[in-house]
Structure formats: C-alpha cells, structure tokens
Design a protein that fits this description.
single chain, about 190 residues, mainly alpha, Double Clp-N motif, two-stranded parallel ribbon, 11 helices, 2 strands, about 65% helix
Length: about 190
C-alpha cells in the first residue's frame, strides 16, 4: 500500500477502515488530485468517494440523491469534476494507482467527519479497535455533522428543510438498521 493510502491516512487519525471505506478514501484522494485541491481528502471529495464507491450504501445514497432531486453536478463543480471523470478515477483505484500527494493529506473538515464517524461507531457499540465502515462515515454526514451538512446541501441546491430531513436522527437509525439487516454488528 502506498504512503498516501487509505490505511495510512486512517492510521494517522488513530483508527482503521474496512475495505469499502478504504476504497472511498482512495477515490476521494484521486478526486483531490484530479481537481488540484490542496488536500487529497476533503469534506466534499470524501462525500463523492462515498457516492462513487459502488458498495450497497453507495447504491442507496445514489437512489436517495436521485429521489431527492439533488443536483450532484453542483457537488462535482466544487471539486472541478464532471460525471465523465468518474470511470477514469475508479479505474485508477481498481488498478491500485496511488493518488499524487497534495499539500495536506486530509483537510480539517474531512478529519472532523472521520472523527465523528469514529465517535458514532463507538456510541453504537463498536469496539474501539473495530474498523470504520462507509455507513459510519455517511452517518456522520447525516447525523453527527448536521449543521455542516445543511450548509453544504444549501450550497449544492438543496433547500434547508429537505436537507434537514436528511440530517435527522431518524436517517441515522435507518442506516444502522440497514447495516444490521445484512448481518453486520457495527
């Protein structure tokens, strides 16, 4: 694994990631590289990494975005991306190509999301050394960092009430229920 890999970024924060989250981190890092951001992983690139990951939660998130009428193009525009760049970035990740290092590995806002995800995982019964999963990180966007999410959603063309609904504790409960339904403990 490269020096700027998902495993190393998470170790820097003091916890580990499961394979699905590692993939989302790698996607986010390539987004940071392609968009020439100061950080490999930012709040926005991490969210896009979760969206493009291809795991069950990513599929669910894409359906929710489509159902809610969210203009993902506005989200992509923040990172100077287009939908056409998705496949080449995913190909880099599939081939194990490391993203070029940026000035900062993980932005403060992305660190906040990941730290909040770890806190939520602990609060829901995960052992302190259990790897974080995409569901924990997505829950941090919806539940743990509600105000920041509302601000980000508002910038991306989603009205506050609709975004506020997505940030409700009920959404977090749905995510946890879905993960338990497929036999995952935390």
């Amino acid at each position: 694994m490269s020096a700027n890999s998902g495993e190393n970024w998470m170790a820097e924060l003091g916890f580990s990631a499961d394979s699905e989250l590692q993939k989302a981190l790698e996607i986010a890092a390539h987004i940071g590289d392609v968009s020439e951001d100061d950080a490999n992983i930012s709040y926005t690139s991490l969210l896009i990494g979760l969206l493009w990951n291809g795991d069950a939660l990513s599929v669910w998130l894409q359906a929710q975005i489509q159902r809610g009428g969210v203009a993902v193009e506005n989200l992509y525009r923040q990172r100077r991306l287009t939908e056409a760049q998705r496949e080449p970035i995913l190909e880099y990740v599939r081939n194990g190509r490391p993203a070029a290092s940026r000035k900062v590995a993980i932005s403060i806002s992305a660190r906040t999301v990941l730290q909040e995800a770890h806190t939520l995982a602990l609060e829901t019964g995960c052992a302190g050394d259990a790897p974080l999963a995409t569901r924990h990180v997505l829950a941090a966007y919806f539940f743990g960092i509600r105000r920041a999410t509302i601000i980000s959603c508002t910038k991306n063309g989603v009205s506050k009430p609709r975004c506020g609904e997505a940030g409700s504790p009920n959404t977090y409960a749905i995510i946890i229920r879905r993960s338990l339904a497929v036999g995952r403990r935390c």
